[in-house]
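Take a look at the protein record below with the fold in mind.
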Amino acid sequence: MSFNLSFDESADIDDLRSALSGIEKVMDPSSMSERVRELEEKAADPSLWDGPDYAQQVTAELSRLQARLRKVEGLAGRLEDLPVMYELAADEEGPEAKELADAERASLRAAIEELEVETMLSGEYDEREAVINIRSGAGGVDAADWAEMLMRMYVRWAERHGHKVDVYDIAYAEEAGIKSATFVVHGDYMYGTLSVEQGTHRLIRISPFDNQHRRQTSFAEVEVLPVVEQTDHIDVPDQDVRVDVYRSSGPGGQSVNTTDSAVRITHLPTGIVVTCQNEKSQIQNKASAMRVLQAKLLERKRQEERAELDALGAGGNASWGNQMRNYVLHPFQMVKDLRTNYEVGDPDKVLDGDLDGLLDAGIRWRMECQRDAAC
């Protein structure tokens, strides 16, 4: 480690080694490799698909473990090569090779920190895709505009990370913005990552809808649910739901299509209402709406079970409270998470999808809460 490395470079590489070693202790690559071999044997058995639900579970777990194993092994290889990059840079004239080595070190740190956060996503549903519901709250037209800004923020974040987004339903407000929206973010660990966004988001700004340019406070509610899988067994009897169909519409009531393809499902025992109008087919919209309803019922079941455990003294308070983050655009510029105290001085970047710092802080905060039963 002594060759051609400054003290800071050497210390930083040692720090990266220590961080990756800690990750490997949690992930246990040798056990993961053994599990991959077991799943590969099952996947190679033609009789596996006699039970499609179980087969899907096996192949999904295999794919997920293979991806995580490749990631940790790839990082270990890159970290092993990093000192060699610095050694080669010292033998070359010009700063280019040294700059490449420095860039690789920075990239490695970001990748290792990202994987470190991933190891904290060990909840029952954390590996699932996420259903996000956004609803405008107090604040009139500003709140509707704020709800649409939040939706754009999450969609931009997903696009930055290469995650596909499917919009199931949008209810547009009359003047501007949206009353509500439901969309799915696809990808592994999306629920575990985005669930820390659940709660009330508050915006403080000069209202663009007020001709007197007064400061306005607006609220929007974000709900994050895990996508329901076939193995979850959330039964919804036909007699418990009412299905209404209607014509899809866009902003200003403009017709999106000319058939009654949009679907509204009302769960009669709970009063939960779900709508979907993104597909041209009524059958597809009904299936999508039913998935969202099942996700809401699954979350309701989890909350009831959690409340029972809390009542028995089996855990701390799992509620994070309503207002969880402030976005201030006037009289100063700041985004502050009220749970973690994590601050960002550039709201525009956050609203354009730069959420990683806030998400990482939220995940670490949640893990501390679970460990200390303090939140």
Residues 52-90 form the longest helix (39 residues). The chain is about 45% helix and 20% strand.
